């Protein structure tokens, strides 16, 4: 079941011990209305932000000398899975392995290595626990899904078609099936594609969400004779997650998160917020780092591009996407990351879709929520080594 996102600096830890107690509580706001439309529950929540007075208590860290490996490399939102017994499975992509911890954070086992062979990986992409309790890893270079038991023993492989590998590589499990995202076919320069999220249960596959991905443009960089194909700056992306019985999807610019159960749309959670217009300053800020870089490592050639030419050739979307990430709890609670004014914020909704409030700016966004309800973040230490940190949420009362 699930496993994002940005690393959290060490200075953030002090903030997590306590969030301001003078703000509103976790009581659902009263201004939302709920109605049914063709069997779908639509939950309309208010536009005004309500400060959410939650604190966060650090309970354990995975990836230290005292808890198995001293750190991880390449963690993202697809690197973490839990089973029914509470065990934690970490796909350490940079080190080509799976590391297993018990529910208390004690190291249990690890499996995998770089290379070929039944239990070896080459570019593992995603990990999940299947509805039958097996741990599965998508190994993109080998074009296989590799299966392990709960003790990290290798249990078998099955091939994946090359077309299936055209997806992002993200696979998430629900209690009844799995979900993944992909695109229709391959794209040449200038061509747009239809992206989708699909849900598979037993032998049935249904596409539960679709969105149009814009065409790419070829950009040439002087000095190194390198060509790259780019989508426009700020091109919208689909945001989704799966946990428990649900799959949550944001596939549009506005503040709408659709929740599916068993491949059927059950609920739509909304707030009437307006996407911010992309400004010239936004585009130039995003483009500037690409105007000069080194191709081929420290001894490689320097690639350069005029800033105005880069913006003109690549293009840009007219509006920012409101939602930058979504995470589901196994109970159906929903965390939504947004940053329409350039300042990331986290909105929290209860299992029926009612808005509880917005966490203080600077609160780290979880890459997962554990079956115990703890939030899990990816954090860097002073040496830029990655760790997984679990926090217990303290919901304050009035």
Give, in spatial order, the strands making up the sheet with the most strands.
1-2-21-20-19-18
Low-confidence stretches: 1-25
Mind describing the biggest β-sheet? 6 strands, mixed
Q: What's the total count of β strands?
A: 30
Look at the helices and sheets and give the structural class.
mainly beta
How large is the count of helical segments? Answer: 3
Q: Estimate the helix proportion, in percent.
A: under 10%
> How many angstroms does the end-to-end distance come to?
34 Å
Shape: globular
Radius of gyration: 21 Å
Please state the average pLDDT score: 84
**Strand residue content:** 35-45%
Give an overview in words.
The protein is mainly beta and 398 residues long. Helix content is 5%, strand content 42%. It has helices at 12-16, 280-287, 307-314; strands at residues 33-37, 40-44, 54-62, 80-82, 88-92, 97-101, 107-111, 124-129, 135-139, 144-148, 154-159, 171-173, 178-183, 193-201, 204-213, 217-221, 226-230, 239-243, 246-250, 256-261, 264-270, 292-295, 301-304, 323-328, 334-338, 345-349, 355-359, 368-369, 375-380, 386-395. The strands form eight sheets. It has a six-stranded mixed sheet, with no helix packed on it. A four-stranded antiparallel sheet has the order 3-30-29-28, with no helix packed on it. It has a four-stranded antiparallel sheet with strand order 4-5-6-7, with no helix packed on it. Strand 10 and strand 11 (154-159) form a beta hairpin. The longest helix has 8 residues, at 280-287.
């Amino acid at each position: 079941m699930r496993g994002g996102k940005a690393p959290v600096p060490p200075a953030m830890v002090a903030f997590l011990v306590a969030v301001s107690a003078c703000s509103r509580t976790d009581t659902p706001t009263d201004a939302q209305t709920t109605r049914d439309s063709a069997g779908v529950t639509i939950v309309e929540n208010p536009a005004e932000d309500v400060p959410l007075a939650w604190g966060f208590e650090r309970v354990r860290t995975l990836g230290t000398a005292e808890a198995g490996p001293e750190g991880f490399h390449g963690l993202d939102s697809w690197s973490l899975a839990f089973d029914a017994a509470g065990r934690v499975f970490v796909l350490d992509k940079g080190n080509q392995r799976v590391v297993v911890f018990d529910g208390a954070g004690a190291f249990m086992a690890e499996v995998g290595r770089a290379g070929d062979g039944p239990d070896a990986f080459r570019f593992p992409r995603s990990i999940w626990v299947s509805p039958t309790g097996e741990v599965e890893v998508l190994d993109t270079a080998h074009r296989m899904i590799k299966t392990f038991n709960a003790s990290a023993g290798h249990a078998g492989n099955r091939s994946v078609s090359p077309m299936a590998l055209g997806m992002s590589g993200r696979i998430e499990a629900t209690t009844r099936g799995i979900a993944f995202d992909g695109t229709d076919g391959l794209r040449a320069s200038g061509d747009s594609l239809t992206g989708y999220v699909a849900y598979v249960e037993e032998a049935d596959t249904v596409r539960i969400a679709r969105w149009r991905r814009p065409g790419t443009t070829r950009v040439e960089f002087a000095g190194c004779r390198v060509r790259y194909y780019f989508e426009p700056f700020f091109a919208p992306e689909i945001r989704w997650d799966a946990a428990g019985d649900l799959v949550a999807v944001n596939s549009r610019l506005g503040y709408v998160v659709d929740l599916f159960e068993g491949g059927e749309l059950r609920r739509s959670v909304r707030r009437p917020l307006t996407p911010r217009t992309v400004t010239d300053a936004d585009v130039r800020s995003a483009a500037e780092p690409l105007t000069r870089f080194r191709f081929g490592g420290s001894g490689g050639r320097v690639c350069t591009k005029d800033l105005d030419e880069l913006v003109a050739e690549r293009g840009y979307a007219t509006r920012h996407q409101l939602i930058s990430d979504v995470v589901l709890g196994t109970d159906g609670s929903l965390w939504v990351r947004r940053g329409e004014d350039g300042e990331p914020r986290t909105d929290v909704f209860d299992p029926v879709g009612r808005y509880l409030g917005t966490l203080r700016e600077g609160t780290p966004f979880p890459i997962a929520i554990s079956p115990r309800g703890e939030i899990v973040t990816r954090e860097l230490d002073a040496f830029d080594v990655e760790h997984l940190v679990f926090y217990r949420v303290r919901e304050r009362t009035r």
